[in-house]
Amino acid sequence: MAKSYYSTVLDHDAETVWAVVRDFNGLATWWSASVSESHIEDGKAGDQVGAIRSFKLGDATIRERLMALSDLDRSFSYAFEEPRPFPVDNYVATARVRPVADGRSFVEYYAEFDHADVDHWTAFFAAEVFAPALAALSEYLGR
């Protein structure tokens, strides 16, 4: 199993950052330059485990299922739903927010998955998904 990882430190406390990212349907709010038309299917809430979010990322429609959410750990995990947006198997991503002693927060975003071309997909998810998402989050919080 491969792991793609990206992290950053944000100049906002962990509670503030977590309040934004914990809404599984909130991508279109803080990553609005890339994500549009986001909704939770079947009338579930954006913090309900099992909820499926469907959103547009560029021209692609992506569906992801919330697998876990913990306010105590300030983390959530999700998996791709069919049709998978990328040709990887067993993809599970996790976002986690941790406090830093000086009032900032450490945010990590990573995924584990299976694919024969580990190097390509590990680099792709870190550079093309996680890094831009966290840059957009930082920009949103800076407003």
From TrEMBL:
InterPro entries: Polyketide_cyclase/dehydratase, START-like_dom_sf. It holds the Pfam family Polyketide_cyc2. PANTHER family: BLL4707 PROTEIN, SRPBCC FAMILY PROTEIN. This is SRPBCC family protein. It comes from Cryptosporangium phraense. The lineage of its organism: Bacteria, Bacillati, Actinomycetota, Actinomycetes, Cryptosporangiales.
